[in-house]
Amino acid sequence: MSGGGTETPVGCEAAPGGGGKKRDSLGTAGSAHLIIKDLGEIHSRLLDHRPVIQGETRYFVKEFECKQLMSRSIDSSRGNRNEKRFIVTT
């Protein structure tokens, strides 16, 4: 503008703080550290399936052991019945 006065920047042209410093896109070093920490947490929640797999494995083993114990008890009771029949028939 003419007139020799100082011009004020309009709208988004104004720099925050009035200084000529440029901020990087990550902000300060502390905020970069927080972003890296958050990314690690997101990675562990989305891509690390070890806790889920370990839980499923424990459940499978527990169910397998229960069924195995039940089948052993059924087999032993059948064996006792067969022994009684064998004793009675002889």
From TrEMBL:
Q: Which GO terms describe its cellular component?
A: BLOC-1 complex; transport vesicle
- Region annotation (Disordered) maps to 1-27
User: Member of which family?
Assistant: Belongs to the BLOC1S5 family.
Q: What is this protein called?
A: Biogenesis of lysosome-related organelles complex 1 subunit 5
The source organism is Saimiri boliviensis boliviensis (Bolivian squirrel monkey)
Corresponding gene?
Answer: BLOC1S5
